[in-house]
Amino acid sequence: MAVSVLRLSLRHIARNYGLPGRNSASKTSYLNRTTPSRSAVSTSSGAILPKPDKTPFGLIRMTVVVVPFLYVGTLISKNFAALLEEHDIFVPEDDDDDD
After folding, report:
1. Distance, CA of 48 to CA of 59 (rounded, Å)
2. Which residue did the predictor score with more confidence, 93 or 66?
3. What is the Cα 2 distance to its own chain's centre?
4. How far is CA 11 from the centre of its chain?
5. 3-state secondary structure of 73
6. Nearest CA among 85, 65, 67 for reference residue 77
7. What is the model's pLDDT at position 64?
8. CA 81 to CA 74: how far, in whole Å?
9. DSSP letters along 19-61, please?
């Protein structure tokens, strides 16, 4: 049963996406298409593009951005945890630590 469902789903995928079937006469038709070329390294004529600009102080800039946001996030979570404890919404019990 599962095999027949799998076959039907594969046929459905092949039909919807234009893939050739098992007995299809045009099995090589999809192979004759032009292969996509990456335009990040070369132009359409084949010339190699120059190296991209390197961002100076990339690691330092990343640190300057990440550290303050981590600090602000910890302050928010600490204050929110204190607010939850103050209103007795979440109060950790000491009994959980006894093993």
Report:
1. 28
2. 66
3. 31
4. 29
5. helix
6. 85
7. 95
8. 10
9. ---TT-S-TTTTTSSPPP--TTTB-TTSPBPPPPPPPTTHHHH
**Residue in the structure block whose two tokens are 């602000």:** 72
- What is the helix (H) or strand (E) element at residue 2, kind and residue range? helix 2-17
Name the token pair of 7. 């076959």
Mean pLDDT of 10-14: 64
CA distance linking residue 24 with residue 29, whole number of Å: 10
Q: What is the pTM of this model?
A: 0.41
Could you give the C-alpha distances from 20 to 31, 32, 35, 50, 84, in angstroms and in order?
A: 11, 13, 18, 41, 61
Rounded mean pLDDT, 76-88: 94
